[in-house]
Every structure is written in structure tokens, then in C-alpha cells.
Write a structure and sequence with these properties.
alpha+beta, 9 strands, four-stranded antiparallel β-sheet, 44% helix, single chain, Nucleotidyltransferase, domain 5, 7% strand
Length: 520
């Protein structure tokens, strides 16, 4: 498929589809220059098409009123390019009018890159500095990121060189990716439905021209209003406003991945971050102070994660390696952290997770299902096992006189649960503590299935967690729990089971358990 970029061997090749597209836009706007600008086509080629079609016989003839209107718009816009685009005029024609009127600025009088940088360092935003110097927004953007023009292209920061007389760009720095303008394959590529198509953008332009609001346009497209709002903000032209073909080209040019890092292409932002790192500020502190120090400059914004990546990805991040030592950790490489899903299995025997627990246990409709855990003493040297029945909130305490290893906990649970009748030995829900490593042998001895909660999910055993909080009134944290005997634990359990509970309609757990034992 032919490219939209001029090849080295000759002129740019256009397809019949592109010609038809040009004439459709030309019929709407009535100007060759505006139609060529909107589609990104060469103006002289478009004039040749109209001449061959018998529409035009050469260059457009401009009246004196047109010239006077141009100078009026120029005084307001401050740029020949902006005024020419607004009026649909050829920019070179407008420059000739400036020269004949004696208003063309000499090269020495034109705003220089140094003048723009001086205004930016003084705290002006890019748009304000461009307006003060009377330069185009595109020129201001290129000066801001360090792009330099050549006769046939541009040189980007990092050594990348783009030659517009060739189909591809050249790179003088190893590892730096070149760019090219989007070709027909990129413009005509069928994307997922969540992205705006060229037809969507044409409809947006038509609805906007008819005076429809953003919300009305979004409703007509079946999109969110924020989608339409971002489309206007990102893809509108500075002077002539929103044009669907130009907007589609802009969107296609932003699509390729990976993109250059913001810190790498904005020297002013990079210098500010490096200065703050040398003052021992953390990346998060730098990210937040940028908002305070540059409230009106949206380019001076960066997240703390971007700063971390710029430090850790040496050679690609954009910040010097020695700055990593300014971090509190002093690390030059990121330390990986595991999440709950990546944890290695805790036990040799496979766990049955709480997601596999039957529904009748979840809704507490059937009695006999328990939640369990340990409360530990000083330095985790002693412990007491706690058991809570889910439907009655009845509490049983497990005496662990020596330690709370997996074998000791298993033996204590077997001795305690064996005192219950068979219909109250349904299941046991526990967290993934190492004390339940012997859960398989406990199930074989008692015929009680053990279900395990997800990592860091204490709410899945809410009744037991609440009971553990109540028990701290009797067994404060930091005390030695081995001094309490079975009689002490039985006394505490009886007091808790004799408390009226709001969730039980002010019945006590002991009364609810008594009813279960007498009716079955």
C-alpha cells in the first residue's frame, strides 16, 4: 500500500481514493488550501487536481478586501501561519503580502529559541510564551522539547534524525527508536469499537457545526461525554478548530508503542527532578511539589512511579545512575514484591479454599459450622485456640499448654471438637496460618472439613475476629497465656456465652445452643 510520505526516488504517490477524499472535502470547505491542510496533502498537487478537473485555472485571485482581512486577523492571531490557516489562505502568499507591505520581520528580529527559553524559565507556560513572542504553538512545542529543524527534516533529542525526503527516519544513537508519519495502513486500520473511527470523527464535526453540545454529541455516538471532550482537547487545530481528517492523523500518530518517556524529552522537567533528588526529596514529594511550584504549567507534571522508572531503567529512563543513591533505600534496582496470588503453597497437603464452601454454610442457615484462629501472648511464645459457631456465636477455647505448633494445635482441636455431637461437627474455617499445616490429619480424625480463607482477608471469618477482640479483655496483648489453665478458659467461655447478643435478638449463645441440643 503506498505511503503518505515522500519517497526518495520521486514524488509522493496518491491513490484515487485519496483524490476522491480531497474533492469531497474541497466541496465542503470551498478552498484548496484548507482542504489540503485538513488532509495533510501537498497544496500544489491539490491545485493540479483541480486544474485538471476544470475547477480552477491556476492560483486563486485575492481581492484587496481579502488582504485587509488577513492583516486584521494577523493582528489578533499574532502569527502569519495562524492567520492564513484561519482564512484558508496559502501561507507563502501571505508572507509575500507581508514583504510587499514592508511588515516582514528580518531574521535577526524574529523570536529566537533563547528568548523562548528565557520566558519558560521565568515561569510562563508554553502557550503564554508563544503568545508573547508571536510564534506558532507547534514551534513553541518543538523548542520546548529540544527539536531542531533541518533543511529536509528535524533532529530530536537523543540523536534521532528524521528526513522527510525519505520514507523512514534515521537514528544516530543506538537503541533510540525512530518515528515516521502515519501511512494509509495506519489510517485505515480497523480498530476495536472502543476507539473513535474516521466516520465517528466526521459525525462529531457535523454535529458540532450544527451547534450540538458535547453531551448531545456523546449521546448520538453512544459514547461518554468525557470521550468527546478529550477528542476536542487532544485533536483540535489551534486556529481552525476540529477537523476530522487531521484529528484522525493525530490519533494514529500517537498510537505506536512504546512512546518516549516524558522525562527524556523535556529537559526542563528532567533538570528540576535531578535538582530535587540531590536535595534528598523522595519521588512522591517531587511529584506533589511540582503541582505547587508550577500551578499553571501542565507540562511540569509527573507521577512518582515515572521518576522511579527513570532511575531504575538505566540507559532508557533519562536520569543519571548516581542519583539513585539519593533515594532513602539507596538501591539502583527495584526490589520485587510478591502479591497474595504469587505466594508459594503454605502446606504440603492441598488446601480447600473458602470459595468452595457450600452456600448453606455461607448464609449461616445450618448450625454446626465453626470459625477458628489463635490469639498469641508475649513474643508469640504462647497461644490459645478460639472457636466460634457461625449460627449461634457459641465460643469454645482450646488449651495449648506447651506450644502452638501444627501438631499441638491439631491435637487440641481434636480433643475439643470431639466433645460435640455429630450434627454440630460440620466444618471449620481457618486462615492460612502455619499452625494448620496438619489440617489433613485433623479432618481424618474428626470428619470435619477445613476451609481456608484467602490471604489477608480476615473479614471472611468475621465472627471469630470479633470474638478475639472480646477475649482481649480477659487476655491482654503482651501477657503470658501459658499461665491460664483449662478451668480459666472454661470460665471465660461461659461468660462470653452468657452475654445477650444483638445479632441473636438479644438471646445468648448458650440459649441458642441449648435449643439446638434439645430439638435434635
Amino acid at each position: 500500500m503506498p505511503s503518505l510520505i515522500r519517497k526518495a526516488s520521486g514524488k509522493r504517490k496518491y491513490t484515487q481514493e485519496q483524490k476522491d477524499r480531497f474533492f469531497a472535502v474541497f466541496d465542503r470547505v470551498g478552498s484548496v488550501a484548507v482542504a489540503a491542510e485538513e488532509l495533510g496533502f501537498n497544496q500544489m498537487t491539490c491545485y493540479q487536481w483541480t486544474h485538471k478537473a476544470g475547477i480552477g485555472a491556476g492560483r486563486e485571485k485575492h481581492t484587496q478586501e481579502k488582504k485587509d482581512l488577513f492583516f486584521t486577523v494577523l493582528q489578533r492571531a499574532g502569527s502569519v501561519t495562524a492567520a492564513a490557516s484561519e482564512l484558508g489562505l496559502n501561507r507563502n502568499t501571505c508572507y509575500r503580502w507581508m514583504q510587499k507591505a514592508g511588515r516582514a520581520r528580518k531574521r535577526s528580529d524574529r523570536p529566537q529559541r533563547e528568548d523562548f527559553r528565557r520566558l519558560r524559565d521565568a515561569g510562563m507556560s508554553r502557550r503564554e510564551a508563544a503568545a508573547a513572542l508571536g510564534i506558532h504553538q507547534t514551534t513553541a512545542e518543538e523548542w520546548d522539547v529540544g527539536i531542531r529543524k533541518t533543511r529536509n527534516g528535524r533532529i530530536y533529542p537523543g540523536g534521532r534524525s528524521v528526513d522527510y525526503t525519505r520514507e523512514v527516519s534515521t537514528t544516530t544513537t543506538p537503541g533510540v527508536r525512530g518515528i515516521s508519519l502515519p501511512g494509509l495502513d495506519a489510517l485505515d486500520k480497523t480498530l476495536d469499537g472502543r476507539f473513535l473511527s474516521l466516520q465517528d470523527r466526521e459525525r462529531i464535526r457535523d454535529l458540532r457545526s450544527s451547534g450540538a453540545s458535547l453531551r448531545a454529541i456523546a449521546a448520538a455516538l453512544g459514547r461518554s461525554p468525557s470521550t468527546v471532550s478529550r477528542e476536542f482537547a487532544r485533536n483540535s487545530q489551534p486556529v481552525i478548530g476540529y477537523q476530522p481528517y487531521a484529528a484522525h492523523r493525530k490519533a494514529a500518530s500517537r498510537r505506536p508503542r512504546p512512546k518516549e518517556r516524558k522525562i527524556l524529552v523535556l529537559p526542563r522537567l528532567r533538570d528540576h527532578i535531578e535538582a530535587k533528588l540531590l536535595l534528598r526529596l523522595s519521588p512522591e514529594q517531587i511529584s506533589k511539589t511540582l503541582i505547587r511550584d508550577f500551578p499553571d504549567d501542565q507540562e511540569m507534571r509527573v507521577t512518582h512511579e515515572t521518576i522511579y522508572q527513570a532511575l531504575y531503567l538505566q540507559g532508557r529512563g533519562g536520569l543519571r545512575r548516581e542519583l539513585a543513591t539519593a533515594l532513602r533505600t539507596g538501591r539502583a534496582r527495584r526490589k520485587p514484591h510478591r502479591n497474595g496470588d504469587e505466594r508459594r503453597p503454605r502446606f504440603v497437603d492441598p488446601m480447600v479454599m473458602i470459595s468452595e464452601r457450600p452456600p448453606e454454610i455461607e448464609d449461616r442457615a445450618v448450625p454446626g459450622h465453626w470459625e477458628g484462629d489463635l490469639i498469641t501472648g508475649a513474643l508469640n511464645q504462647s497461644a490459645i485456640g478460639t472457636l466460634v459457631e457461625r449460627s449461634t456465636r457459641y465460643v469454645m477455647l482450646v488449651h495449648l499448654p506447651t506450644d502452638h505448633t501444627a501438631e499441638s494445635v491439631r491435637d487440641g482441636l481434636i480433643a475439643t471438637m470431639s466433645t460435640l455431637p455429630a450434627h454440630l461437627r460440620g466444618s471449620l474455617t481457618w486462615d492460612q496460618g502455619v499452625e494448620m499445616a496438619a489440617h489433613k490429619s485433623f479432618t481424618l480424625a474428626t470428619d470435619i472439613q477445613v476451609y481456608f480463607c484467602d490471604p489477608a482477608s480476615p473479614w471472611q471469618r468475621g465472627s471469630n475476629e470479633n470474638t478475639n477482640g472480646l477475649l482481649r479483655q480477659y487476655f491482654p496483648k503482651g501477657t503470658d497465656l501459658s499461665v491460664y489453665g483449662p478451668e480459666d478458659l472454661e470460665h471465660v467461655a461461659q461468660e462470653l456465652n452468657a452475654r445477650p447478643r444483638k445479632t441473636l435478638g438479644w438471646d445468648t449463645p448458650a440459649e441458642r445452643l441449648r435449643d439446638l441440643l434439645t430439638t435434635t
